[in-house]
User: What shape does this take?
Amino acid sequence: MTPIKTVALFATISATLVSNAQNRIGSGKVDELYQATWASFHSKQLEGGSGQSLIDDIWKRGSTDTDIAKSIRDGFPEFGMPPWKAALSEDQIRSLVIYIREPKAASSASFPQNNRG
Assistant: This one.
């Protein structure tokens, strides 16, 4: 299969998954949205699969919340990541950014720095 056909197929499957996820997510559970749309690429625990890890703090296009939201919104078709702006609302994109940030925040909170000399 040619790279263009592969990306087109990926985009079609992704749009279908997002549509199905949005129909099931009436409650707004971001974990369900993530699991239905990205888990097969970035893994269920965000540590990476065919897509890069979302928890290692290594980002190809910037690490701020704004950068990550832009990455979700615009995608990286050249890397096989479709743009999600047509399928996800800005609120859903923001929720996904927070969801991606939570594991790092939780691990930082679990291991507070000892600042005593």
User: Anything to note?
Assistant: Helices lie at 3-24, 30-37, 39-42, 65-74, 90-110. The chain has one domain: 3-105.
